[in-house]
Amino acid sequence: MPVVSDDDALRVFSELLLIQRTTALLQWIGEAKPVTGTGALRTKDIEAAAACVGLKVRGGPKRAEVAQAGNGGSERPVPTVRSMYEVPLLAQVWEALARTELIKIGPTKAEPSPASAVFQAGGTPDRLEELVFFVEQFLSASVLGYDPEQPWEVLVAATVASILLAAASEDPPRRDTVLDPRTGASPEERATVESLKAAAMSQLEALAEQGILAIDTHFRVPPALVRCIAKTYEDATVLEDLGLLDIPDLDLDSKDA
């Protein structure tokens, strides 16, 4: 585990886009916001909540597309969703807020807990503890939120786990060789690998957007965040469910791996 001082770690965590967006969502919640019987935000509140986490969507009774001005004067569609759960990032942040008890979700409303004030502006040790816990729970909600009954989802989750664990090591994997097909692979095998690679990269790029992962020539986890990756996958049951527990040597840089 890299040695990072609390002051340096607090700076890294507080500068994460994920933390800044979550802070904006907590500020939007204010004293409380109404929720449905499932604990989700109301349809009419989805647009404002999604904007807090950097997304443009509209809540509505049916799927539709509303044009919005884009770059160069062109128009791009704004998706309309029936439920907050159709907006993955918003749903994942909401779940992490609930898991960490930064918000209390009751039968009719969600309201911030006293810990949310520490999350936003506490002293170094207490605030750092809240930020680390939140990132851990966000990772759990986002990278482990797969359906165990769906083999393809399990395979994608295992691939993401393999890359994150390697990215958190002292020998991070190179981007240009991760998930390369075997030499001599058939067209069908290559197509499968490309599909898997695209699905895994989509999740990894989403994490990179939040600041949890850096993707350049290699995949790298910032030293201060290695603890969060370790916590996410520390349970042997998690690795076993992903089919990774008994792999003696996961060589992500090898084309023959």
Description:
This protein is mainly alpha-helical and 257 residues long. The chain folds into two domains: 6-62 and 76-141; 147-241, Arc Repressor Mutant, subunit A, CATH 1.10.10. The chain has helices at residues 6-15, 17-29, 46-52, 88-99, 114-121, 124-143, 151-167, 187-210, 226-232, 236-241; strands at 33-34, 58-59, 65-69, 75-81, 103-105, 109-112, 214-215, 219-220. It has a three-stranded antiparallel beta sheet with strand order 1-6-5. Strands 2-4-3 form a three-stranded mixed beta sheet. Strands 7-8 form a two-stranded antiparallel ribbon. Helix 2 (17-29) runs antiparallel to helix 3 (46-52). Residues 66-73 and 248-257 have low confidence and may be disordered.
**Overall morphology:** globular
Derived from helix and strand composition plus strand pairing, the structural class reads mainly alpha
**Assembly annotation:** single chain
Low-confidence segments, ≥5 residues, pLDDT <50?
66-73, 248-257
Q: What is the string of helix and strand elements?
A: HHEHEEEHEEHHHHEEHH
Mean pLDDT reading: 89
Beta-strand percentage range = 5-15%
Helical residue percent? 40-55%
Question: What's the tally of helices?
Answer: 10
Total number of beta strands: 8
Question: How many individual domains?
Answer: 2
- In whole angstroms, the N-to-C terminal distance is 26 Å
Strand order of the largest sheet: 1-6-5
Described by strand count, sense and barrel closure, the largest sheet is: 3 strands, antiparallel
Compute the CA-based radius of gyration.
Answer: 20 Å
